Amino acid sequence: MPSYCCPPPPNAHPRLPSNGIPSGSAPARDNTLSTISCASCRMRDLCLPAGLSDSECAGFERLVVRRRLLLRGEILHQMNEPMQDKLYAVHSGQIKCYQVSYAGEQRITALPFGGEILGCDAIGSMVHATSAQANCPSIICEFNYSQLVAAARNFTPLARRMELLLSKALAHQQSVNLMLSLPRAEQKLATFLLQTAWACALRGGDGITFELGLSRRDIADYLGLTDATIARLLQRFIRYGCLAVFRRRFTLLDAIRLRDIARGDYHTGEARRAQQAL
């Protein structure tokens, strides 16, 4: 797939002023992605430029090396591939991060949405611990890690924002670990659906209906379950009246009952429905 804009040649990054954010307008990009900017991005409040003024955000735009459109199934980076001093932000779409065992089995480890940062797993070792693949057509913003660090050293709000995003990533991973430790498959799937709806609501969704680029096998892989178990549970949730599914679109019809299931508090849900029937 052709690049939609080319990165600057080595050592051609703009000189940073005292505040660490380059001044002036951003360089011209390919027309396909030329309408995208940090200042107008709907993910701005969730991404690195959050909290910056419009003028600072315009300068931050120069830290974006390039933007790439990934088609469904296209790989952003491979497991064990050198980091090459790159970090990425998801502008739109959905990405899945996964590892492949020596036996060739895939295990999904993360599902970043818009505004989230990719590549942080490689900062220590300079090698990616996972592969990253687009679940649907997705736009990715590419940054030079060294230049981001240099800007953050001279501009405290950016440094604070990078720390906050790393902290949120750790907290999210802890919540995923907690979800995977739940004793029942129903709890895992209900928690996953609720967390996904909440993540989509933060990105402009209604918190009720959302689309996933994942197959049932991908969902099963992420939750440590089988494809057959996911299919059976989805039909059960539909039968309960708490979920509707059309192709890859999910609608939470009864989020309260799903929360009951996620907590493992099935009796509370039954009692509530019995009271409503009176």
UniProtKB/TrEMBL annotation:
<dbReference type="Pfam" id="PF00027">
    <property type="entry name" value="cNMP_binding"/>
</dbReference>
<dbReference type="InterPro" id="IPR036388">
    <property type="entry name" value="WH-like_DNA-bd_sf"/>
</dbReference>
<feature type="compositionally biased region" description="Pro residues">
    <location>
        <begin position="1"/>
        <end position="12"/>
    </location>
</feature>
<dbReference type="GO" id="GO:0003677">
    <property type="term" value="F:DNA binding"/>
</dbReference>
<dbReference type="InterPro" id="IPR018490">
    <property type="entry name" value="cNMP-bd_dom_sf"/>
</dbReference>
<keyword id="KW-0805">Transcription regulation</keyword>
<dbReference type="Pfam" id="PF13545">
    <property type="entry name" value="HTH_Crp_2"/>
</dbReference>
<keyword id="KW-0804">Transcription</keyword>
<feature type="domain" description="HTH crp-type">
    <location>
        <begin position="183"/>
        <end position="256"/>
    </location>
</feature>
<feature type="region of interest" description="Disordered">
    <location>
        <begin position="1"/>
        <end position="28"/>
    </location>
</feature>
<dbReference type="InterPro" id="IPR012318">
    <property type="entry name" value="HTH_CRP"/>
</dbReference>
<keyword id="KW-0238">DNA-binding</keyword>
<dbReference type="InterPro" id="IPR014710">
    <property type="entry name" value="RmlC-like_jellyroll"/>
</dbReference>
<dbReference type="GO" id="GO:0006355">
    <property type="term" value="P:regulation of DNA-templated transcription"/>
</dbReference>
<dbReference type="InterPro" id="IPR036390">
    <property type="entry name" value="WH_DNA-bd_sf"/>
</dbReference>
<dbReference type="InterPro" id="IPR000595">
    <property type="entry name" value="cNMP-bd_dom"/>
</dbReference>
<protein>
    <submittedName>
        <fullName>Helix-turn-helix domain-containing protein</fullName>
    </submittedName>
</protein>
